[in-house]
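Ticket #4471: complex job returned nothing on first submit. Input attached below:
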Amino acid sequence: MSALLASSIVQTVLVGAALLGAISGMLGAFAVLRQQSLLGDALSHAALPGVCLGFLVAGGRDLGSILAGAFFTGALAALVMQVIVRRTTLKTDAALGIVLSVFFAVGVVALTHIQGQGGAASAGLMTFLFGQAAAILRSDLWIMGAGGLAALALVLAFWKEFKLVSFDANFARAQGLPVAWIEGALTVMVAFAIVIGLQLVGVVLMVALLIAPAAAARQWTNALGPMVVLSAALGAVSGALGALISASARGLATGPVVVLIATAFVLISMLAAPRRGLVWQGLAARAMRARISEGRVLTALQGLAQAHGDTAYKAERGMLNTALGAAPHAMRIDALERRGLIQQVTHPPETTPHWELTQAGHEEARALSGNAADKDRNLS
Amino acid sequence: MIDAYFASIPAMILTTGILVGASGALLGSFLVLRGNSMLTDAISHSIVLGIILVWLLTGHLTGPFQILGAAVTGLVTVALSEALARSGLVKMDAAIGLIFPALFATGVILISLNARNVHIDVDTVLLGEIGFVWLHTLTLGGLRVPVAVATLGAVFAVNLAFVLAFWKELKLTTFDAGLAAALGLFPGVLHYAVLTLTSVTAVAAFDAVGAVLFIAFVIVPPATAYLLTRRLWLMVVMAVAFSVLSCVTGYILAVQWNVSIGGMMAAMTGLWFALALLLAPGRGLMSQALRRSSERLDHDCRTLVAHLYTHQNSPDMPEENTRRALTDHLRWPESRARAAILRALDRDLIERRDGLLALRPKGQAVAEGIFARHDRPLMGLD
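Support reply: We reran it on our side without changes. The output follows.
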């Protein structure tokens, strides 16, 4: 493993994969917040004809022109989507599906056309379907690094505007911000993130690299800044790990591995994240249910005490069951005793255990039932 | 005759394409109208996992049980996405975008790991091999029929029977799910029935067109038909017709240019959509543009008439009721002024009199109408 890490090719691939993952994660956060996840899917499929176009124009596998081509058709797809949504009665989902499938089909046609012409270089194009991190060259890192810096600069420069438009576009419009332009810029950045990530995960699974790190990060924080940073970090880790695993197993494309790692992060986050996570929510719901049933025991005891005009009224188990309509769990009774709200007493000559409210229990019950007890008295 | 048909490779490729397109378009019409197009995307990707899982379990890729088994993953994807969205942790769009790539990625990895044994290439997962459907045949009533044609024929028959049998119910649940539920029609069950058939069709079409191109056959022809008609039955018929047309033209072009047949067929669905988008009578971009420019011209005409009306018989009439006033005072470009004057002349609203523009009786009436309409609410306010 250490020998593998020391190899300069592996280092290049790792740095490249981490860089691509980080950029996609950072920009994906905005796509998820604006509920445009599936736009990412459509634009990434639409990048395929652009990849072929770049290949045809450059006459070979030149990363710069391939990325430029992918960006061009991605932007064109976004534009076509806008026209369909604004000028027809078709809904957004149909526009997404049309753009996704038709652009991809054109890409497939172009791909087979290039393959039909032959040439060894054309084989490299197939790696853009599922991604192949091993194909990243040292010279590619400069393009990616420059692209990443440009995206980062843009996000930092327009942080406030992006934040406002992502969360409340109507308010932003009322504030006089050029919302259409900012939304356009965000869409362009999604297209950019896709283009950057293509080498790593390919056109088909790109949507996952865009969404998964952001969806995972969203579970841990409610603030945009930490979310974007965490999303970029998760994207970088997914990219680097995926590249490493796919490089060490023969014939395994990078994309699916990266996607599964990122999905694992989502799964962990959804389960374990504090407050939002399912485990946390389950525990909180259980605690809430316990509080409610304890409260019902207290108010039942209070009601019995009032009905009998005896604050120290001693109720036995059967009496409580009747008053509540169901048997309270023994654990709830124990918990109430532990909290010092009720106490177990004997009520000779009977031998069964009885309970009465303590002083604290009376106060708690009064707080729970509000002035309901007073109302009852007035009515009777 | 029939022998020759089933033995002909082009006929079998075309038949396969047409069956995929027609089966997809039948269901796609309802998915597009209900706003569920992107579920097709999710389903067609995740059945890849189902297909490889079924292969691992049974060792076969084709057969009715294999198809149904693989189709289950499509439904699981939809159910999981909906459950995830309901949990409130992520929105529906992100839920779809999380579930299907994960299932699809798992499927692709399983295929890669078993590449030596299973006869699926990772690349054909996406694109299909419609050119090779004639390689696998089975004997049906003494005829050697390609497996794909037999399977897709059965799927098409089921889809057609479903749509015909539940036409009324489908129509009602598509346009007014609330009313359908109130009448006891179980829109949710019907919704899942459509999705089940979509999954089954996707699995059956998988060998021929792969995971992604299938989406084009389901969504694009119905969307094209929707641009051209507002009648459901006509929309479904037209959607099927556009599918068939795309398959035929796509096949011809693909053979001509030596490119992917499935890809070209799917690309052709896009061509018909683009044409409908541009040229659809009344709703297309072209008629929208024509209507808008005609409306703008009408408005200019009314402005011109109003302008002449306000200044006629006033001292500045010689200066105002001229073409120069339109360009100098209203700041209209020359061409706009000319077009408005020509239309007003055509409509008999104005005439040229003593070198000035003057209102004809009809133009006078229009102008009075414009100002009367503006006076009334003002009087109401007093």
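Chain B has two domains: 2-280, 286-376. Closing as resolved unless it happens again.
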